[in-house]
Design goal:
Distance between the termini: 77 Å
Order of helices and strands: HEEHHEEHHE
Strand content: 5-15%
Helix content: 40-55%
Number of helices: 5
Structural class: alpha+beta
Radius of gyration: 28 Å
Largest sheet: 3 strands, antiparallel
């Protein structure tokens, strides 16, 4: 019996010590030579962005689906040719990780969200850009080459096209309480 009582007392003392350690504001700090506690430093990995919650991902996916439907209708009318738009992927990554898997000839459009340090990446396939430019200039989209170098005139016209796409995207983004979006840098070399 005495052993059981000692065990119970020891157990109660252990719980009290654990509570004291948790409530002690210096718990987890180390004492420096002078007996003053120094805070423990926790390393942070800035290469991994903060992940969206499932609810935010669902809302963004729904907004992007509606955006694609609206944009496809608008471009079909403007370009006088059938246009289909889909979201290929919806991920939250670092800028470099988002750029890495893109084809080398993909046109990248930086979409800025309010602060200059908050960007989204819009990637557009070069064949789509060339077909759109052909249609904008009065030709048939089907007659556009699959690949060619973009001239200064092509870039100027494509910027207008991308401005329209980003404006439509901005409308969808504001519907989920996001800030207005603007087109940032556009490139094909992978340095936007």
């Amino acid at each position: 019996m005495a052993a059981g009582a000692d065990g119970d007392a020891g157990g109660a003392q252990g719980v009290e010590e654990a509570r004291g350690a948790d409530s002690d504001p210096t718990h987890g700090e180390r004492e420096h030579d002078g007996g003053t506690p120094t805070p423990r430093v926790e390393p942070l990995d800035f290469s991994q962005p903060t992940k969206f919650t499932p609810e935010i991902r669902r809302r963004v996916a729904a907004a992007l689906d509606a955006f694609c439907e609206d944009l496809a209708l608008e471009l079909t009318t403007e370009l006088k040719t059938e246009v289909e738009m889909t979201v290929e992927s919806l991920t939250q990554q670092t800028w470099a990780a988002a750029r890495a898997p893109l084809p080398t000839n993909a046109v990248s459009v930086a979409v800025q969200e309010g602060s200059p340090h908050r960007h989204m990446l819009l990637s557009v396939e070069l064949p789509f850009v060339l077909r759109a430019l052909e249609a904008l200039l009065g030709g048939k989209a089907a007659d556009a080459p699959a690949e060619r170098h973009l001239t200064d005139v092509d870039w100027a016209l494509s910027h207008e096209l991308f401005d329209g796409i980003v404006a439509r995207l901005s409308t969808a983004w504001r519907e989920i309480d996001g800030p207005a979006l603007t087109r940032g840098e556009t490139d094909i070399e992978g340095d936007a």
